[in-house]
Design brief:
The chain is an alpha/beta fold. The protein has helices at residues 11-21, 26-29, 50-62, 86-91, 94-97, 109-126, 138-153, 166-176, 188-191, 215-224, 235-238, 307-311, 325-362, 387-396, 429-442, and strands at residues 130-131, 157-161, 182-186, 198-204, 228-233, 251-255, 271-275, 288-292, 298-302, 367-369, 378-383, 402-403, 419-422. It folds into three domains: 1-42, no CATH class; 69-77 and 346-451, Aspartate Aminotransferase, domain 1 (Alpha-Beta Complex), CATH 3.90.1150; 86-332, Aspartate Aminotransferase, domain 2. It has 15 helices and 13 strands. It has a seven-stranded mixed sheet with strand order 1-7-6-5-4-2-3, sandwiched between helices. Helix 6 (109-126) runs parallel beside helix 13. Residues 409-413 have low confidence and may be disordered.
Amino acid sequence: MNSNPYSPHTPEERAAMLQRVGVGSVDDLLGAIPKDARHPRLGIGAGMSEIEVQSHLELLAKLNTTAGAGPFFIGGSIQRRYIPAAVPVLALRGEFLTAYTPYQAEVSQGTLQAVFEYQSLMAELLAMDVVNSSMYDGGSAVAEAAFMAVRVTGRKKVAVATEVDYTYRRTLRTYARGPELEIVEVPTSKLASAAAGAACLIVQHPDAFGTLVDVRQIADAAHAADALCIQVTEPHACALLEPPGAVGADIAVGEGQPLGIAMAYGGPHLGIFACREALVRQMPGRIAGQTLDANGTRGFVNTLQTREQHIRREKATSNICTNEALAAITAAVYLSLLGPEGLRAAARAGVSRAHELAKRLAALPGCAIANDGPFFDRFTLRCEIGGWELRNALLERGIQVEATASHYVDGRRQGRDDVIVQCTELINDADADALVNAIAERAGTRETAGTR
C-alpha cells in the first residue's frame, strides 16, 4: 500500500492514522480475513503487450456475426436503422462526450440546451406536454411509468397487456417486487375490462408482434375507472400513426435506440418518458427547462427536481440517479438532421417493405400472417414447421428472425409458435428474396426473385 502511486498520503500521514485507530499496520486492520484469502492466486497468465491484446480481441470479434453480415429481420424495441454519418460526428464531440452531469447550470449550458432540444423534439413527436431527459431504456421507462401511476392514484394494481414486449414485462415484474405491486397480465383485447381498481393500463401500439391497437378505447376505459393509460410506443411509428397524446394516453414510454443510436451489442439505450403536464411533478428523472436570467438572457437549468430528491430515497419520485444524456443528444441530432419528412420517409420505407414481404410470404404453402389485425413495419409469420424450428433453419443460412415464443414462458401453450419479421429502410430486395426463398424451400416449393 505504501507504494501505491495513486494514494496522496505520505508515510507519516498513514502512520498517524494507524496510531489514531490503535493498530500497528494496515495488515492488522484485515485480521478478520484469513491470511490465505488476502492475496489469492487468480490463475491469470502473464500480461500481454498492446499488440497481442489487439490481435486477441480481433480474433474474438471474428467469432461474432454482425447484424449487417446477412439478412437481418430482428427488431421491435431495438432496431437496425440507417444512421447518417453526421450523427455520431456531432453527438460525440468532446463537449458532449466528456461533459459532467449538469448540476451547475452556469458551466453546463451546452449540455442543458442540447437536452432541452431533445425534450422539445420528442414532445412534438409524441404530442405530449412534457418529456424528461431520458430513462435508462424502454424497460425501465415502463416500470417507472407504472410506479408513477401508483403514486398518482394510490392503487397498487397494474394491468399490462401480454402483447407488450416481454423484456418490458419482465422488468416491470422485477421492479414491482419491492413495493409488492399486483401485476395483472391480460391480452390487449381484454385490457379495458381489467381497469377496475387498477392504477394504470399499459398497452403497446404497435404491439410487440407488430399489430396496430385502438389505444383510444383503452384510454377511455382507464379514465372511466379513474386509472391512467400508459402507452408503449416507437418513435418511427409516431411519425405516421396518431401519437400517444392524440389518442388519450396519460404517459408515453418507449425505447429511443432507433433514433440514430447503434445497437452496439446491447447498449447504451435511451428510455423515452413523456406525460401530461398535470402529472409532471410525479415524473421521474430529470427535466431541462428554459428560463431568463436577471439580464433577460435565455438560459437552461435542471427544473422541478434537485439532486437531493433522488438521494433521499423515502422522498424520491424515483431512484434513478442519472440518465442517458449522450444517447438523448444523439437522438436529438438524428431527429434534427432527418426532420419530419425524413423521419416519415424512413418509417414509410419499413412499412412498405413489410407489407410487400408479408404478401409474398403469405402466398407460400403452409404459411400465413398471424397478426390479429393491421400491422405496421413488422408482422408475425406462422408456418407449419413451427417458429423455433424455422428460426434455427434460417439462422443456418445467415438469416436472422425472432421466434415469438421468446415473448412467453411457453410459446406453444400460448399459441404463439411463430416468427416475427421486422422491416426497416435497411431491408433491400436481396434480403427479402433470401427470406422468401429460404422459407419456400422449407415448405417444399420455391419462389424465385422474379415473381415479386
